[in-house]
Structure formats: C-alpha cells, structure tokens
Amino acid sequence: MKCTFGLTLRFFIVILALIPAACWVLEEKTDIKFHPLKWVILALGTICTLHAVYDCLHDVLFKKINNTTQGKSDAVMFAEELCGTARCWGLLWSMISIAVVLLALFGVVMLEGKCKLI
Fold first, then answer.
1. Among 10, 17, 53, 59, which one has the highest count of C-beta atoms within 10 angstroms of its own C-beta?
2. Burial class (CB in 10 A: 0-12, 13-18, 19+), 65
3. pTM, entire model
C-alpha cells in the first residue's frame, strides 16, 4: 500500500509540474491573446494564500489546539514562548493573512489596468 501511495503521489507531482510547463510552451510557440501561464500561476498563488487563511482559522478556532494526541499547534508554542493566548495569536495571524490576500487581489486589479485609483 505504501508503494502505491508513493507512486501515485509522484505521478500527481509530475502532472502538476507539467501544467505550468505546458502553458509556458503554449505561450511561446503560439500567438494567442489569452495567457494561460499567468492564470495558472494566479490560481496556484490564490490556492496557497487561501490555504494559509484556512489553516490559521482551522488550527485556532475550529479544533482543539492543545491536544495530547495531535500535539501542540504553532500558536500554542508561540504563546508559551512569548505572551498572550494561542487563540489571540491565531486570530492575529488570520487577520494578517486575510489582509495579505486582499492586498494581493488589489495588486492584481491595479496591475491588470482595470482600475485607475493611483
């Protein structure tokens, strides 16, 4: 079972690496107005930033963060080293990650040229 899982995981990693490579080749070899590589990278970045928001909220607000079977979360260890509670640190990290996502979305809109605020 472990061998099958490892081979399947490697297969999906290779497939996921080939998607941006194929988009890059498509952009270089053809004269299209649609830029698939830009949208693939934008989708991957969006997924990563939204996972950061989800991870902060899930670890701190929606499950037990100091569980003996699962271990301590990073918010618990951070609160032990400094001050405050783990929920306060998790909420602060969640607000920071949401602000970064909103700032990135604002940057995408400004770089696209659709909005003329500045």
1. 59
2. buried
3. 0.55
